[in-house]
Write a structure and sequence with these properties.
It is a single chain. The protein has a single domain (about 15-275, about 290-340), classed as L-amino peptidase D-ALA esterase/amidase (4-Layer Sandwich). It is built from 7 helices and 14 strands. It has helices spanning about 70-80, 95-105, 135-145, 205, 240-255, 295-315, 335-340; strands spanning about 30-35, 40-50, 55-65, 80, 85-90, 115-120, 160-165, 165, 170-175, 180-190, 220-235, 265-270, 320, 325-330. The strands form 4 sheets. The chain has a 6-stranded mixed sheet with strand order 4-3-12-11-10-9. Strands 1-2-5-6 form a 4-stranded mixed sheet, covered by helices on one side. It has a two-stranded antiparallel ribbon with strand order 7-8. Strand 1 and strand 2 (about 40-50) form a beta hairpin. Helix 2 crosses helix 3 and helix 5 (about 240-255) crosses helix 6. It is globular, with a radius of gyration of 19 Å. The protein starts with about 25 loop residues before the first strand and ends in an 11-residue tail after the last helix.
């Protein structure tokens, strides 16, 4: 289930066939979801940027820095993304990072690796301090990674996450930008309910606690939390252009009501697979690039896909009860349809520019 299944079409650009980050050729996504007993609500999601494991140009952006995305200093310095990306809970970054290193060695991809692994905090629903994610869960997610449809909501790293005071998690979307595609995947665990907007409609104010119960944790959903945003494109961008794309994706967070609050970790990474490299090139490499004057369609695509990915994470997630009876309630579809229609924003499922 996603926003378009409810007749909600964000923005003006057309999505790709899957409306997912996997619409960018070569990108694969895998999840391992851990739900057990009353208190295990966590997991790991992996994104493989290229089909053959070769490097690609990339660059990060920090909206607010109360979070972690490892390996970014080398991405900034070199301009390259050289490993799969992992996303998990705050206390499991280390094991996911180590498992990605081990997987790179198993694949005979050299001796030196500095993986990119991001996190958001799932400790309201999950017994996070027990660190239930293990290396075998990372290996399973890598093995399961596919370039097909991406499961969304309370899956993988997003299993225990909360977004704008509703159940959140993993979301994805894509857009066509002329001859190129832009795809986004988010792990959404941020935002205050009162600030939630969907296609400009103040959904969070309309669906207050009198209509949808508030979180049972008193300090959750107050605008804290975090979001990880991964932006992929098949356009031939250089690293500084990837940085510009990551900056614009932050506007998609803002369009849904995120504000980079003081206690939020809002970290973004954009990568471009339009130039191909040998893993150990030691000769001059011919490159192509999109002229700066033609970047605007990619910017618009990144903004729209980020906004819709966040909404898809909300729409796909279901109500979840976790540790100590803490409950995060799903964004109810019938009520969402009602609010969107009253706001004049419920549109046909297929929409053209």
């Amino acid at each position: 289930m996603n926003a378009r299944d409810l007749g909600i079409a964000i923005g003006d650009l057309e999505p790709g066939p899957l409306n997912a980050i996997t619409d960018v050729a070569g990108v694969r996504v895998g999840h391992t979801t851990l739900v057990d007993g009353d208190s295990v609500r966590t997991g790991v999601t992996v994104v493989l940027p290229t089909a053959d494991g070769t490097p690609c140009f990339a660059a990060p952006h920090r909206l607010n820095g109360n979070g972690e995305l490892t390996g970014l200093e080398w991405v900034r310095e070199s301009g390259f993304l050289t490993t799969p990306i992992g996303i998990t809970n705050t206390f499991s970054v280390g094991v996911v990072r180590d498992a990605i290193v081990a997987s790179q060695h198993r694949a005979n991809r050299g001796r030196w690796h500095l993986p990119v692994v991001g996190e958001t905090y799932d400790g309201f629903l999950n017994e996070i301090e027990a660190m239930h994610v293990r290396d075998q869960h990372v290996f399973a997610a890598l093995e399961a990674a596919t370039d097909g449809p991406v499961e969304q909501g309370a899956v993988g790293g997003g299993t225990g996450m909360i977004c704008h005071g509703f159940k959140g998690g993993i979301g994805t979307a894509s857009r066509a930008a002329g001859e190129h595609r832009v795809g986004v995947l988010v792990q959404a665990n941020h935002g205050a309910r009162r600030r939630l907007q969907i296609d400009g409609v103040p959904v969070g104010r309309e669906l207050g606690p009198e209509r949808v119960p508030a979180l049972t944790e008193p300090d959750a959903g107050d605008g804290g939390g975090s979001i990880i945003v991964l932006v992929a494109t098949d356009a031939p961008l250089l690293p500084h252009q990837c940085a510009r794309l990551a900056h614009r994706a932050a506007l998609g967070i803002a369009r849904t009501g995120g504000a980079g609050e003081n206690s939020s970790g809002d970290l973004l990474l954009a990568f471009a697979v339009g130039n191909r490299f040998s893993a150990a090139a030691d000769e001059p490499v011919p490159l192509t690039m999109v002229p700066n004057e033609r970047l605007n369609p990619l910017f618009y695509a990144a903004i729209e896909a980020t906004e819709e990915a966040i909404v898809n994470a909300l729409v796909a997630a279901e109500t979840m009860t976790g540790r100590g009876g803490a409950t995060a309630y799903a964004l109810p579809h019938d009520a969402l349809r009602e609010v969107m229609q009253a706001g004049g924003r419920r549109r046909p499922q297929q929409r053209h520019p």
